[in-house]
Amino acid sequence: MPHANQLYKEIILKYPETEVASKAKKRLAKLLKKQLKTHEGGPMKTDISKIDFSSFDNPGLLSFLFHPRKESPGSLPLENAEDILIPVGDNAVIGAKLHHGDKKAPTILFFHGNGEIVSDYDDLGPLYTEMNINFLPVDYRGYGRSTGTPTVTSMIRDCHLIFDYIKKWLESNSYTGPIIIMGRSLGSASALELASAYPDEFSALVIESGFAYAVPLLRLLGVNIDAMSIKEENGFRNIEKVKNYTGPTLVIHAEYDHIIPYSDGQALFDASPSSSKKLLKIPEANHNTIFAIGLKEYMKSVKEIVEKASK
Question: What's the pLDDT score for residue 72?
């Protein structure tokens, strides 16, 4: 089976937009699902069939929330990085990449923004490994090397499957360090969903450019909320979910974020019950310049919370 896994992966990497690659992804998803059942550990703690965001899953709204794009064909493999394909049902797979160093080091499971893909973080990954942190960004359906079509329901359901798979994958590959959950922008919804559902399984929580309230964000994006009958209490409820996590928490937000206002970061920070929490404001930055302007302080603060979580 390991040989079959490798063969399918090589086909997908070499011929990403071909019919043979599409078939390889489906076969690999089935194979990975069978292998996942053999891992140690019982069933998932959360019944994801009860997760329903159907009111959000109409084409008019999804076109504002998701901007999927594929990874450029012919991308070269990186040193100290391993591509992972995660089965999430319906013969779909989610692409991920582990930038790795010491197997005893902490691992950050990272959910990115709606216009990004895993390979966008190829330059950032080595910065984490230099700090003795393994960095594992994951995609959504339809993004990067993933298959399928993104919806809000699938995104929230998938994050549970992703965590379940990655947790077992790390254990089976002898990674013993703690896991930190992190989300940027749209990814804050997945990160807070997991932190709320499994608060004892993450050593720290990092939210960067995260949103506290969905309705104001959707209005800003141009969504006709009233016509769609969307209400805050039926949405992501990020502000409620952050209240369920008491571990070390870091909230990072740009001072002049033009998509998700700084007040959302402040609201998440204020709602956090953690006795060890920090709010990092990146002065003069907006949603898209937060790395360019504040990378040094950004990485320093992440390193500090990871070190704190590792003690």
Answer: 83
